[in-house]
């Protein structure tokens, strides 16, 4: 399978991508735990059917020490006992922030309250921005049909410079 369009070979898309990666670095270096960030990105990517992002974020999470069991259970997090209450709040937040059209109301008051129990203002800001970023990345990759499977952890590090 080949992508229908190479975003990195296009001047406009490459410029955008460089700035997009720069914005993502702000979140990566925030006070929001890296594990939490990867769980959120994986769950949103599952919902959006973005194989490219799933490939990237599951491999990055595994390289950072995330267990295979937890990675395998993200899609069934409600039935799994391997996630903390804070992580469960983030997974619900990721789902509701990704499925905006399903309810027409965005993140529920219940989920918002659960997130606020576990995260400070800077972390909540990072969560909001991270949901927006991963959904944008998912959409770009799904639209151009970027294939999954070839990602290696760290392969895009040079793009962030």
UniProtKB/TrEMBL annotation:
**Residue span, Carboxymuconolactone decarboxylase-like domain:** 26-96
What domain of life does the UniProt record list for this protein's source?
A: Bacteria
Q: Which InterPro entries match?
A: AhpD-like, AhpD_core, CMD-like
Q: Which Pfam families match?
A: CMD
Q: Give the matching NCBIfam families.
A: ahpD_dom
Q: What is this protein called?
A: AhpD family alkylhydroperoxidase
Q: What organism is recorded for this protein?
A: Amycolatopsis magusensis
């Amino acid at each position: 399978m080949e992508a229908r369009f190479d975003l990195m070979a296009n001047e406009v898309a490459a410029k955008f991508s460089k700035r997009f990666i720069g914005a993502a670095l702000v979140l990566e270096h925030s006070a929001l735990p890296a594990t939490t960030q990867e769980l959120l990105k994986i769950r949103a990517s599952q919902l959006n059917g973005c194989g490219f992002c799933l490939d990237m974020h599951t491999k990055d999470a595994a390289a950072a020490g995330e267990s295979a069991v937890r990675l395998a259970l993200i899609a069934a997090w409600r039935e799994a006992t391997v996630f903390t209450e804070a992580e469960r709040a983030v997974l619900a937040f990721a789902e509701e922030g990704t499925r905006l059209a399903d309810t027409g109301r965005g993140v529920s008051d219940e989920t918002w309250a659960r997130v606020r129990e576990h995260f400070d203002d800077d972390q909540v800001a990072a969560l909001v921005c991270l949901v927006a970023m991963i959904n944008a990345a998912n959409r770009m990759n799904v639209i151009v049909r970027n294939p999954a499977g070839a990602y290696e952890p760290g392969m895009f590090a040079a793009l962030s410079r």
